[in-house]
Every structure is written in structure tokens, then in C-alpha cells.
Amino acid sequence: MAAPLPWLVVTTVGSREQAQQLARTIVHLQLAACAQIEAIESIYRWRGEVLEDSEFRVLFKTQPARYAQIEAAIRQHHPYELPAIHALATCAADPAYAAWVTENSAGKGDHVPTGDLL
């Protein structure tokens, strides 16, 4: 049976350190096979004001069956009051890559690294 097509789960945080901490946590828990971090500029409305901030986007590569778990874990470890958490379904992926994502996001992680990660 072919592996399911990966989902890309995306959130943003305020610093590179927060992005790295969140990425390490989710990957160690095996809720995502991989996380990518990139610097972005955000313009958004918050509590009646238009704000502009530098942020870091974290993109997690996971399988559809893990969405509820990864959303809960992101929410639990996220520094924002109202984190943006959304998933994008892919429409095509290399079958071997899709299998790798599925194998490495099986949710079998039993620990989160200690120290300054959370």
C-alpha cells in the first residue's frame, strides 16, 4: 500500500530560538519527520491595531493522521496567545519520500529533549 501524501503544518513564532525549540520538540516526539525554519516579515491586525513584526515560520512535514496530535503539541509549546496553526495537503509527492515522512512521523517518540528546549 502506498504511503499517504504528506501534509505541511505551518506556524509562526517570534524568534529563531523559539522556532528551533518548537521544531526539535515536534520532531523528537515523531509527530513530524522534518521541520524547516525561515525568517519572514508579518503584517497583521491584532486587537484593533495593524502591527508589523519579524517572525519565523516553522513548516512541519507530517502525515494526515498526525494532524490532531501535532496541532495539540504546537499549541502546548507555543509562546503566542493565539498561534496560527494550519495544514496544507500536498497533491503529489515522490512515493519514497512520502514513505519516509510516514515512517518518521509515526508518533512513537517517547521523550522530548531536556534543557532549554521547552
Can you describe this structure?
The protein has about 120 residues and is of the alpha+beta class. About 30% of the residues lie in helices and about 30% in strands. It has helices at about 15-30, 65-75, 95-105; strands at about 5-15, 35-45, 50-60, 85-90. It has a 4-stranded antiparallel beta sheet with strand order 2-3-1-4. A hairpin with a 2-residue loop joins strand 2 (about 35-45) and strand 3.
What's the short story on this structure?
With 118 residues, the chain is of the alpha+beta class.
CATH arch. level architecture? 2-Layer Sandwich
Order of helices and strands: EHEEHEH
Roughly how many Å is the radius of gyration? 15 Å
Count of β-strands: 4
**Mean pLDDT level:** 93
Counted by DSSP, the helix tally is 3
Q: Outline the biggest β-sheet.
A: 4 strands, antiparallel
- The figure for the number of domains is 1
Strand order, sheet with most strands:
2-3-1-4
| CATH class annotation | Alpha Beta
* Gap from first CA to last CA: 37 Å
Keywords summarizing the entry:
118 residues; alpha+beta; Alpha-Beta Plaits; four-stranded antiparallel sheet; 4 strands; elongated
List the helices and strands and how they pair.
Layout: E1 7-13, H1 16-28, E2 34-46, E3 49-62, H2 67-77, E4 86-89, H3 95-103
Antiparallel strand pairs: 1-3, 1-4, 2-3
